[in-house]
Amino acid sequence: MPKLDPALLEAIGQPMPELEKLSAADQKKLAADLAHAHKQHDATLKKSMDDAMGHIPFLLRGAVKKILGL
């Protein structure tokens, strides 16, 4: 039984013994797919926040970003 791939463990953030049943190749594929999904999610979130900031007057954007931690 293969151990959990380190890249997959990093992608999911917590140990999941059920995933050890996957082959090493499938674990690597899942880790790559999760990393790709995280990048897409981050890009979509950034774009939506940038679009939302467009509705805030320019002089207030810095303060709002600071409050939101952006």
Automatic annotation (TrEMBL):
<protein>
    <submittedName>
        <fullName>Uncharacterized protein</fullName>
    </submittedName>
</protein>
